[in-house]
Design brief:
The complex is a heterodimer of chains A (762) and B (150). Chain A is of the alpha+beta class and 762 residues long. In chain B, 37% of the residues lie in helices and 15% in strands. A five-stranded mixed sheet of chain B has the order 2-1-5-3-4, with helices on one face. Classes of the chains: A alpha+beta (762), B alpha+beta (150). At the A-B interface, helix 1 and helix 16 of A face helix 2, helix 3 and helix 5 of B.
Chain lengths: 762, 150
């Protein structure tokens, strides 16, 4: 392969490192209304009276909107394919306020100072209601978060708003209790994970205006432009044909921008005033009303025989949707289905869950999408089982987990998909070698109070959403033979523009620089569900492969016609179409230029792709920490990750994805924790209080690949983006146990919890 | 109030409100590389040079720059490209939103520290947060860049 599997520069790299103006706020300079929100100070309240007269009359204020002025049809802000599994449970502005920060009024004016002044002039009388803040108490609580009659779940996800239930389900197979009865060793524990904020460096932001045709044009920092078009149409109650969504460069997303967070507010301002409008979330707003990872409490029951063969797993996930149900019904599914599938040889399983509403911030999509929570629980339980068995936790995994030998097996916990590719065993063995596990397990005494210990976890994810995701691309042949690759997939820094161009260049046998990529504009880009669910390389990448095949056939046909040969008599080498029977040929440049003239055919192709399967990528993660047993202080020394993502299309980008995902996972494991006060207000709503890892906090990270070949993916590729966040929580918890004999089952793993645990053990 | 300052050697004279923050002033003059990532001086995205020294433009008042010279990445494009090429070769820019501020700090570090150790590099750049890369690719780029300068 000439272009695929090469660590080429991202096509936008040099523009980004020289600070070119390519992001939403940079390309929308010039006059537009500043849009801000009056947000609820209460976690649960009704608006009794709201007086906007003074605010409205302030010089420079163009519009003030309350719940009385917005459309009354409920919708979801979750960016998902229609019909969305997330219930239609919200309005742009609602009379009932369900969490601190829920919008009370939208104010638009000439500048920020004027808008802030107007916000302070709005008088609201609230009927303060008792908030439901503990999601463990939510099910069938007398406080109901969504009492409204027009609550609407489009899909059968088990929603029942009168019970505070956003979703519920049960799946099982085999005779669970009989299997547990035959088990010699059973681990039964409850694990808690906290809500985490994605903290992408560019906060939520959207610009809107009306174009020459009177249509609403939206420039937004989003992962899901086509879903945004539908969500805005639903929210504003206007036809989808009236909306155009453009995605420029995105300053990170990590799932946060798989929901419409800022889009509705400037959009309705522009519809009301006819004027351009812009809303930029402050960092504080991105913290207090973003779309963070769902908080979860997961009960695991895990049974094994006397030899450590795992026979049965039962997982129950209790999930905090928060105020609205965005991504609630779907993230929860991954906590069981992805986690349990690693142990595919089990005889019986049960996975059930409840997703509940509460008066806390609504959750959303965050890299890992529920699998991360599930892997912390299950991998921690497996590590606890190893302790019970007095067995090395890596040996326990090699005995039970998916390996290359199981390729061809059906995976009952994974919607009965068949395993097409897997080198997880090689990943784990290599990770052990890299970190010198056998020398270091369980710990090495460093003298004084310090020990260095190691901890392990394995993980998988999917590649796209099977039978749901659709990715289409268009490739055009232009003057002199360069290609335009038109995509609807959303590069948010991950490099998918470049990766898809690499696939196209490989297929069309041309230079990487000969492919120009364009995306995303919902008026002109081919449809794509968007960049989430680790789908782009796998799903849209295959659309590129198919489209190149179609275009090549057109080039062959046109070339053959131009040199007066039949299509069977010619071939194409990327540079020219040439005759197989004599030395006649025509260059791609000549074919391209003639295609723009007179009698000839303009050459363009477009294909779409979807997949009946979602092949799992795999990885093993092993961490080495230094533990101060006096204070519980943890220093990360080394993190080794060995990944099977199939063929890495761009190994540099795959490596950086892995390193970045691990560091986000390290933050989740050690300190990231959205905390509320007793009134339901988020307390740590800045980088001063909500700490994400700095470069001093992460030790060394080493990444290696043990690539399998996925037959259904482009050039054998699977996904990588989300997988890589799943191992740090359980691996670090395992290292802490190996250093201290303390099992931390509630994230984050703080020094305080470790020391308390050691004191309890004494 | 009236201020006069230079951004990348271009003179700007303007009437501003005393509470104008430097980042907003700079962006309003079209130097859009300067990004805001927080309101609490924690992220380093808005790093510019004031009289050649890195400062956070989100927590510097524009009036403090009166009579002084500001440099943004637009003003040192050649240096930025040279180091940025090493970033690009690692794929370590990712979303790129933190890159301008980060690169301003790296180039300031190069002037200030001679043959910095890995720990010194990390310490110097601690205030530049990045959520995409996990920092390792940035470190590889810095090391290769510094080696290329010997």
């Amino acid at each position: 392969m000439k272009v695929v599997n090469k660590g080429l520069r991202k096509k936008d790299a040099m523009a980004l490192v020289t600070g070119k103006p390519v992001y939403t706020d940079d390309i929308t300079q010039g006059s537009s209304l500043v849009v801000k929100l009056l947000r609820s100070p209460h976690a649960h309240a009704n608006i009794e009276e709201i007086n906007i007269d003074k605010a409205k009359n302030l010089k420079g204020i163009e519009c003030v909107l309350t719940y009385k002025e917005v459309p009354s049809a409920r919708f979801t802000t979750a960016g998902q394919s229609f019909p969305e599994p997330s219930p239609y449970d919200r309005l742009i502005l609602d009379r009932r306020l369900r969490c601190v920060g829920d919008p009370v009024a939208i104010v638009a004016g000439v500048d920020e100072k004027t808008v802030n002044k107007a916000i302070s002039l709005i008088k609201v009388k609230y009927e303060i209601l008792e908030p439901l803040l503990d999601f463990r108490q939510a099910l069938d609580n007398e406080i109901i978060v969504h009492p409204e009659e027009d609550f609407n779940a489009l899909c059968d996800v088990g929603a029942d708003n009168n019970r505070n239930l956003c979703a519920a389900a049960n799946s099982e197979s085999g005779n669970l209790e009989e299997e547990f009865n035959n088990c010699v060793h059973i681990v039964e524990q409850t694990y808690s994970t906290r809500a985490n904020n994605q903290t992408m460096m560019e906060t939520f932001r959207t610009y809107t205006n009306l174009d020459a045709y009177g249509r609403l044009n939206v420039i937004s920092s989003t992962q899901v432009p086509f879903h945004i078009r539908r969500i805005l149409a639903n929210a504003l109650n206007i036809p989808k044909s009236k909306i155009r969504v453009i995605k420029p460069r995105i300053g990170g997303g990590f799932g946060a921008k798989q929901s419409a967070v800022s889009e509705m507010f400037p959009a309705i301002v522009t519809m009301v005033t006819g004027k351009p409008a812009k809303m930029i979330y402050s960092r504080k707003e991105s913290f207090t009303n973003g779309s963070p990872r769902h908080e979860a409490e997961i009960k695991v029951r895990l049974g094994a025989d006397e030899n450590g063969v795992i026979k049965a797993i039962h997982m129950y996930s209790l999930w905090n949707a928060g105020a609205y149900g965005d991504h609630g019904p779907t993230t929860v599914g991954l906590s069981g289905h992805k986690a349990m599938t690693i142990y595919n040889k089990i005889k019986a399983f049960k996975f059930n869950y409840d997703v509940v509403y509460s008066n806390t911030m609504w959750g959303g999509a965050y890299r890992g999408y529920g699998a991360t929570q599930g892997f912390f629980a299950l991998e921690s339980a497996v590590n606890e089982l190893a302790t019970k068995l007095n067995m090395d936790p890596t040996e326990l995994r090699l005995k039970n987990m998916l390996t290359e030998n199981q390729v061809g097996d059906t995976m009952p916990t994974y919607y009965n998909e068949i395993l097409n590719s897997c080198t997880l065993d090689k990943c784990l063995i290599k990770a052990k070698e890299m970190i010198e596990w056998d020398k270091k397990y369980p710990y090495v005494d460093m003298g004084g109070d310090k020990v260095r210990s190691v901890g392990v976890a394995v993980a998988m994810q999917g590649s796209g959403i099977s039978q749901v995701d659709v990715g289409a691309v268009e490739i055009k042949l232009n003057d002199d033979g360069f290609y335009t690759l038109n995509i609807g997939a959303t590069d948010m820094g991950t490099g998918c523009d470049s990766i898809l161009a690499q696939i196209a260049a490989e297929c069309l046998d041309c230079e990487y620089d000969n492919i120009v990529v364009h995306g995303v504009d919902t008026d002109t880009s081919p449809y794509d569900t968007g960049s989430y669910a680790s789908s782009t390389t796998y799903i849209t990448g295959m659309a590129v492969v198919k489209t190149c095949e179609t275009l090549k056939n057109k080039i062959l046909k046109e070339g053959a016609r131009l040199i007066d040969r039949s299509i069977e008599e010619v071939d194409f080498d990327g540079q020219k179409v040439f005759s197989l029977i004599d030395d006649k040929n025509i260059t791609l440049k000549d074919i391209a230029n003639s295609s723009l003239l007179g009698f000839n055919n303009y050459l363009t192709a477009s294909e779409s792709h979807h997949s009946p399967t979602s092949p799992p990528p795999f990885m093993a993660g092993i961490v080495e920490i230094e533990m101060d047993k006096l204070t519980g202080q943890i220093d990360l020394i080394d993190y080794v990750a060995v990944v099977d993502c199939g063929t890495p299309i761009n190994p540099n980008l795959a490596r950086v994805q892995t390193e970045g995902g691990l560091v986000q996972g390290i933050g989740m494991a050690l300190y990231e924790d959205i905390k509320y006060n007793k009134d339901g207000r988020m307390m740590n709503d800045s980088f001063l209080q909500y700490k994400i890892p700095s470069r001093l906090d992460v030790g060394n990270i080493r990444v290696a690949f043990e690539s399998s070949y996925e037959p259904t993916g482009p050039f054998g590729a699977k996904s990588i983006g989300e997988l890589v966040i799943n191992t740090p929580c359980p691996a670090i918890a395992n290292a802490v146990y190996n250093a201290t004999n303390v099992n931390i089952r509630t994230l984050p793993i703080t020094s305080e919890k470790i020391v308390m645990g050691m004191l309890e053990n004494k | 109030m009236q201020i006069k300052l230079w951004i990348n050697d271009r003179e700007f004279e303007d009437e501003i409100s005393p509470d104008t923050v430097l980042i907003d002033f700079i962006r309003s003059k079209g130097f859009l590389s300067v990004k805001r990532g927080c309101e609490t001086s924690n992220c380093g995205l808005c790093t510019v040079y004031l009289e050649g020294k890195p400062v956070l433009s989100c927590s510097t008042l524009a009036m403090r720059a009166d009579g002084k010279h500001i440099t943004t990445i637009e003003g040192i494009e050649e240096e930025a490209k040279e180091f940025g090429g090493f970033m690009a070769d690692e794929g370590a820019e990712q979303c790129g939103f933190c890159s301008p501020g980060f690169i301003m700090s790296v180039l300031a570090m190069k002037k200030e520290l001679k043959n910095p150790t890995e720990d010194e590099i990390k310490k110097y750049l601690e205030g530049n947060l990045c959520r995409c890369t996990g920092y390792m690719g940035q470190l590889r780029a810095i090391k290769k860049y510094l080696e290329s300068q010997i």
